[in-house]
Inverse folding.
């Protein structure tokens, strides 16, 4: 944001912010370009150029459509925070019931890339916090994707090495490859770290989460997604 604000102060906003008008609230809502808007506010600009698009019938733009547009627009941006795209894809999956195939169709992106970004959510909460709070730009998307292939303990160790040894993404991938070979070539990506078991009559249900901390809402989200998948079948 500091770099973007400096650029805006020097050159202004070159790429318009995309908005639509929410009739029920009497405001313009940003579809894409929030960082540009915030940078403009930070440097005291009185106005920003906008492209005003037609709002959907009903007047309330759906969150899912906004997310899809933002994913498409920001996919290739090098300056995007590593988790920005991953979090948007996770929301499309968990809160809007889209599987990877549907997300790939809506965004026009390869399913393999969707899977890679979602794998970043398998990184432990502790390591995620380190990456999300990084102010030096030490962790790129490739760093985090590489970390997601390790078990939780190794993620913590390698994440520290990235920072202290200033490992590049390529160097980190090599470290991860060596560690996986030490495990006999078995991929550690998404190693189960938390399990919930439920007895329903004569049926036993087991849910395996690829993270340590699991909330009641996490379990409910999984159950809801499963219900939607069964209904679509």
């Amino acid at each position: 944001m500091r770099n973007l604000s400096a650029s805006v102060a020097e050159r202004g906003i070159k790429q318009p912010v995309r908005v639509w008008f929410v009739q029920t609230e009497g405001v313009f809502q940003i579809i894409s370009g929030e960082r540009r808007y915030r940078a403009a506010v930070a440097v005291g600009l009185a106005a920003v150029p906008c492209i005003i698009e037609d709002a959907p019938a009903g007047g309330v733009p759906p969150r899912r459509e906004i997310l899809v547009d933002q994913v498409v627009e920001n996919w290739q941006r090098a300056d995007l925070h590593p988790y920005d795209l991953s979090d948007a894809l996770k929301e499309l999956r968990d809160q809007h019931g889209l599987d990877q195939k549907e997300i790939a169709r809506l965004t026009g992106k390869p399913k393999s890339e969707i899977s890679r970004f979602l794998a970043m959510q398998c990184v432990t909460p502790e390591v995620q916090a380190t990456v999300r709070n990084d102010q030096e730009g030490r962790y790129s998307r490739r760093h985090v994707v590489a970390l997601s292939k390790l078990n939780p303990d190794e993620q913590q160790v390698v994440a520290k090495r990235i920072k202290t040894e200033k490992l590049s993404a390529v160097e980190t991938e090599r470290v991860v490859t060596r560690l996986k070979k030490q495990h006999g070539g078995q991929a550690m990506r998404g190693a189960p770290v938390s399990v919930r078991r439920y007895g329903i009559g004569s049926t036993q249900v087991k849910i395996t989460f690829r993270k340590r901390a699991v909330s009641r809402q996490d379990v409910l989200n999984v159950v809801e997604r499963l219900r939607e998948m069964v209904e679509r079948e």
In short: The two ends are 45 Å apart (CA to CA). The first strand starts at residue 17 and ends at 22. The mean pLDDT is 83. The first helix runs from residue 2 to 11.
